[in-house]
Amino acid sequence: MDLVYVYTKKRSEFGRPCNFSDRAAELHVDILPDHSLASFFIDRDPCDVPLQCSQQMSEHEVNTEHVDFESRGINHTEGGWPKDVNPQEMEQTIRFRKKVEKDEHYTTSILQLGSVMEHCIRQNNAIDIYQEYFEDEEGEEDEAQQCPWAKTINLFRDPNKVKRTATSLSWHPDGSHKLAVSYSCLEFQKATRDMSHNSYIWELENPNKPEMAIQPGSPLVCLSYNPKDSHILVGGCYNGQIAYWDTRRGSQPVEISKIENSHEDPVYKVIWLHSKTGTDTFSASTDGQILWWDIRKISDPTEMLVLDLGKEQNINNALGAISLEFEQTMPTKFMVGTEQGLVVSCNRKAKSPSEKIVGTYSSHHGPIYALQRNPFFPKNFLTVGDWTARVWSEDIKESSIMSTKYQTSYLTDACWSPVRPSVFSTVKMDGTLDVWDFLFKQNDPTLSLKVCDEAICSLQIQENGHFLACGSQRGTTTLLELSPGLCTLQRNEKALVSAMFERETKREKILESRQREMRLKERSRSEQSKEGDTAGMDYDGEETPEEMIVRAEEEFFAIVNSELKQREVEQQKTKEENTSEE
Known about the structure:
Elements (H helix, E strand, L loop, with lengths): L89 H12 L2 H21 L10 H11 L4 E7 L8 E7 L6 E7 L14 E5 L8 E3 L5 E6 L6 E6 L4 E5 L8 E2 L10 E6 L7 E6 L3 E6 L8 E4 L14 E5 L7 E6 L3 E6 L9 E6 L5 E6 L6 E6 L2 E6 L8 E2 L7 E6 L6 E6 L3 E6 L9 E4 L5 E6 L5 E6 L4 E6 L10 H39 L13 H37 L1
Antiparallel strand pairs: 1-28, 2-3, 3-4, 4-5, 6-7, 7-8, 8-9, 10-11, 11-12, 12-13, 14-15, 15-16, 16-17, 18-19, 19-20, 20-21, 22-23, 23-24, 24-25, 26-27, 27-28
């Protein structure tokens, strides 16, 4: 037997009923003023009110909602086939097509659809009288005349409590929609026990959470995507080991080199080689070794080179490598930037290890943190060290052909623009990004931007040149968008840059030849003074160094003018020949 008790309540106790229909305003309650309350008010006299001459402002804060993005895939299957036909079987699909083509309604439907498609094609190919044929050229002129700018798009912060330095950056090779960042503490004995070893892969549109964590055994100093397989990354660890990851297999390394066969110091640079298999790479470290690896068997290096300028392969006399450069169009050549301020040019295919070191360029007073060839003119390369950035030519080893003036802060990294041969970017210890365009201005940067308050340690530009990423000492990676003028190739830019490089190279060659002559003269004088044959010799007819430099410049410009006149004569001859043929 069920016991049921019903609770009841009167309708009047529910309150006033709600009526949500549109209607005119109604007066429900009218509260009249109570004059007896006026006796309780107290007049304040005098009344002091403070005044300010400035405008009064109110503070208002708004916190937006936190949004987490997540990427998910969709499995697409081919549809539209009958249930008894398997689209994976070629014979069944061919048999079904033949059956449909024999149908009577097939030809009529094709004819109807064909007329509609033909109408659309003709409409699409019709002439548009409002089309602007020279819109692109006008846009290029406008972009070139605009002032250069850069704006911050996103910030990718180290998600760990103990912040580390963003030591290297690598763009995803397919579309550059991802960015791999390696994190490590490079200050000696500053790493704590609770400091994380993880590095991360970031999705550009989701700065709140990294897409994937890279978990090495030791903190990563460098990290690089494989240009042939975007799922594979190779990294150099702080303890000298080399490891590679496959993002399809998870965060753990697929294979890692043996510690006894690896570098003895941190690996500062890892570069993929241009090979058929796409599995070859080589690394540089401050222990003075260059090691070549094959990730299919990464436990042992395939080849080794010791940076001993004495060509004795003595690791105790080796120079510490801190930067590395390899150009795919020059498969046998590579260059190494050292801690001692020297750039070492090497040839991998030499017969003996002593012949692999071809020559050196004495460039900077301190370590060379950046070394990169110009993507349009590989004979010219850029170096960064101490307080300057220098542009070199392979033909001249004594001095650079171009250099920036000494900055107030130390330069830490630099890279060329992949789309403009005259543009390169540098970053400094004071958190400033400088973009240089030496066709527009040689003494000062075209754009100088204060990115952050801490030192910027790494820099990388996207393949299309529109986006630039720089990593700071506190682990913050800033994504910047550059103005169209800085990432759009200008008219005759390649020819102008080539002419400038050739002119400066010739000038340096002439100055070097004059300096050699001066050295020979000084050497001969010193030898004569030692022999005692210089008694009574008159030096009144000798040139001073300033006069020699002036004479060398006059000779240089005389050669340039003679070449220009010769070109004009040749052009005039070709014009006369063309007119005679006509």
